[in-house]
From TrEMBL:
<feature type="transmembrane region" description="Helical">
    <location>
        <begin position="237"/>
        <end position="255"/>
    </location>
</feature>
<feature type="transmembrane region" description="Helical">
    <location>
        <begin position="6"/>
        <end position="28"/>
    </location>
</feature>
<feature type="transmembrane region" description="Helical">
    <location>
        <begin position="177"/>
        <end position="198"/>
    </location>
</feature>
<feature type="transmembrane region" description="Helical">
    <location>
        <begin position="40"/>
        <end position="61"/>
    </location>
</feature>
<feature type="transmembrane region" description="Helical">
    <location>
        <begin position="204"/>
        <end position="225"/>
    </location>
</feature>
<keyword id="KW-0472">Membrane</keyword>
<protein>
    <submittedName>
        <fullName>Zinc and cadmium transporter</fullName>
    </submittedName>
</protein>
<keyword id="KW-0812">Transmembrane</keyword>
<dbReference type="GO" id="GO:0046873">
    <property type="term" value="F:metal ion transmembrane transporter activity"/>
</dbReference>
<feature type="transmembrane region" description="Helical">
    <location>
        <begin position="67"/>
        <end position="84"/>
    </location>
</feature>
<dbReference type="Pfam" id="PF02535">
    <property type="entry name" value="Zip"/>
</dbReference>
<dbReference type="GO" id="GO:0016020">
    <property type="term" value="C:membrane"/>
</dbReference>
<keyword id="KW-1133">Transmembrane helix</keyword>
<dbReference type="InterPro" id="IPR003689">
    <property type="entry name" value="ZIP"/>
</dbReference>
Length: 259
């Protein structure tokens, strides 16, 4: 199987298949879904941090001698994603109601705009995911698989939240599903463009991996972890730690086994 085929298949896993999984998840009764979703989020945190620190950054460090520039790239990546989130182009919502997406009760126009912004932000984010997956595969096929798994781990709970916002914005279930699938196709576009644009720029790959790591770190630390602090019971904290460690362990085992 060619490298390009690997990239397309696993970009599909991180994009369209995540939407399908989220759509099936929405079929679960609301109360049960609300209880299960935080557990998926905890696992996603571990998967993202594991992929960033155990896979992406080590490969990035191994691909260049300019560690100072690489560290600066990670820092600038974190600041860049902060600015994107400020512009509501990177906002993730892993709950059916969140302050970034819930409009005022009387603001009907804002209500509809929330759904549109979600689709735009999702499309941009999926495009970037495609670029990162392609860069990882072009560095090492095993790294690409681990990166795609980490993307899928956090895309599923994100898509569940996005579906909820679209439904609240007046989209029908069918329309929300179709538009979410269309937004997810930008993953393939990003992967395809990255494959051809980075093919002759091997020296740039370590820095793209550094941006991928900063993306995963930012999503885990700035977006997902604050939601866990809403559940302060000791039993909930123990469950969160166990699931985070499980996410890290899955990435570690996948990366070590593939190698």
């Amino acid at each position: 199987m060619s490298l390009f085929t690997w990239i397309l298949l696993f970009s599909l896993l991180g994009g369209v298949l995540s939407v399908l999984a989220a759509a099936l998840f929405l079929l679960i009764p609301g109360f049960t879904r609300e209880r299960l979703l935080p557990h998926f989020v905890s696992f996603a945190i571990g998967a993202l941090l594991g992929a960033a620190f155990l896979a992406l950054l080590p490969h990035a460090l191994g691909g260049t001698d300019d560690f100072h520039l690489l560290g600066m790239t990670v820092l600038l990546g974190l600041l860049g994603f902060f600015l994107l989130e400020k512009m509501v182009l990177w906002r993730h919502c892993h709950h059916e109601v969140c302050e970034a997406h819930t409009p005022e009760p009387h603001a009907h126009d804002n209500h509809n705009a929330a759904g549109t912004l979600i689709l735009i932000g999702d499309g941009v984010h999926n495009f970037v995911d495609g670029v990162l997956i392609a860069a990882a595969f072009m560095t090492d096929i095993h790294l690409g698989i681990v990166t795609a798994l980490a993307v899928a781990a956090h895309e599923i709970p994100q898509e569940v939240g996005d579906f909820a916002v679209l439904l609240q914005s007046g989209f029908s279930r069918r329309k929300a599903f179709v538009f979410n699938v269309l937004a997810s196709l930008t993953t393939l576009i990003g992967a395809g463009l990255a494959y051809y644009s980075l093919a002759d720029m091997q020296q740039a790959l370590p820095f793209v991996l550094a941006i991928a790591a900063s993306s995963f770190i930012y999503i885990a630390v700035a977006d997902l972890i604050p939601g866990l602090h809403k559940r302060v019971e000791f039993s909930q904290t123990v469950q969160q730690i166990i699931l985070i460690l499980l996410g890290v362990a899955v990435i570690y085992l996948a990366h070590s086994t593939l190698h």
